[in-house]
Amino acid sequence: MSALPKPDAGAPTTAETVKNLMLAHDAFSRWLGVAVAAVGPGYACLTLAVRPEMLNGFGALHGGVTFAAADTAFGLACNSHGRQAVGLSVTIDYLAAGRPGDVLTVEAREESLTHKIGVYQVRISNQHGAALALFKGTAYRSDKEIPI
């Protein structure tokens, strides 16, 4: 009886392949400057350095930047299983202001997954671990497989 071959440890996971495909075509996230720290099934973690052009009229991080970073993490997490998913609804609660020079961590976690619906929580925090915003996203999962 022969042993089953082990998967190639160097082979990218579905989540990594989807991440590479999505970011290759996502000029906005590249412009934003997000760096992907980790991806996995139903999970994505990004970092983002707050630059002067990201500030609002009061010198705090513009809420649109925070939202956009959370939306990118949400998109990576909800597509990480290899089926094309799109956002149905999202909400965000802003808890504290980001500041110039902050390095944000944007972490998306899958809370529920069914055949057609996925629900995700995204936490945005600064380099001190202080929560700046909480984002919740609900995604519709199509039957269309992402070509990987």
UniProtKB/TrEMBL annotation:
NCBIfam families: PaaD (TIGR02286), unchar_dom_1 (TIGR00369). The keyword Hydrolase applies. The lineage of its organism: Bacteria, Pseudomonadati, Bacteroidota, Cytophagia, Cytophagales. Residues 58-130 form the Thioesterase domain. CDD domains: PaaI_thioesterase (cd03443). This is Hydroxyphenylacetyl-CoA thioesterase PaaI. The gene is paaD. InterPro entries: Acyl-CoA_thioesterase_PaaI (IPR052723), HotDog_dom_sf (IPR029069), PaaD (IPR011973), PAAI_dom (IPR003736), Thioestr_dom (IPR006683). The chain crosses the membrane at residues 31-50. Pfam families: 4HBT.
